[in-house]
Amino acid sequence: MDAVDAAALTAPRAEPPTRGPVAPTAEEQEFRRPLRDLLAERAGPRANRAATATPEGYDTALWARMADPLGLAGLTLPAEYGGTGRGPAALALACEETGRALAPSPLLATTVLAAPLLAALGTPAQRAALLPRVADGTLTCALAVPTGIAHALGLTGDNTADRWSGGGRAGGIQAARAADGGWCLYGEAARVIDGHCAGLLLVAAHAGGFARSRTLLFLVPADAPGLVRTREPALDLTRNQATVQFRDTAAELLGEEPADVLGALA
Fold it and tell me: Do 186 and 209 form a contact (C-beta atoms < 8 A)?
């Protein structure tokens, strides 16, 4: 090894250049500004505390203004259903701004979790009936998964098996055929975000018995007989959670069988 090689080995290694924050585009700024202004007006510390103390757990008037004229409720939905047709980047910006203000709202449960599932799996009739109401903010939704949202989305483990929706001969939520050919749900899901106040529940349940078990999603309206919803105390008061029980509760299958539930979750 010559002197040049030795010097090269012992010389301090140059650090790669660090990348500074990426400046927001003009379109992003145009999207952020009215939302940030609205939250500054309606979502200060005192207003947030008052909102979490309401039966809904959020400021319904603020949500109405977030939905119209800002269009946040239907942010990812196609224009034919009253949505704005924006992609995940705009959704991330909306979540960032509401998080900055610590503003409780149905944005996560309805716009992030439920609306894409309704759009991906719903029949044409279901989409026509539900998505315009989601887009204009008059219908809020919650996704009820027995093992928790993180597991269902594959964030804390493998969701390719049916374990994420309750698993086994007992436990979780079971779906059975009713005498009239419809569906009935039995079981319980805890820590359902906005589960106590959402107008529509999307429920992950087992169907087909243990031998041929499969996970399907069902629609349960807030006024369904046999539906019991209990708001849970939470460390984060801005993230409403509930325990939801189904006691021979009539439900409507979301979409048609066979349904690619895992693909829609992904």
Answer: no
Residue with tokens 């999207």: 31
The residues, ordered by sequence, that sit 6+ positions from 201 with a Cβ below 8 Å of its Cβ are 141, 142, 143, 144, 192, 195, 219, 220, 221, 222, 227, 244
- Enumerate domains of the chain plus CATH numbers: 26-105 (1.10.540.10), 141-265 (2.40.110.10)
Sign for the pseudo-dihedral over CA of 261, 157, 191, 87:
negative
How big is the CA angle at 81 (ends 78 and 85), to the nearest 5 degrees? 20
Tokens, residue 24: 């927001």
Residue 168 has pLDDT above 50, yes or no: no
Note the pLDDT tens digit of each residue in 219-261: 999 999 999 999 999 888 889 999 999 999 999 999 988 777 8
| Residue at token pair 């409507």 | 252
CA angle 205, 209, 210 (to 5 degrees): 100
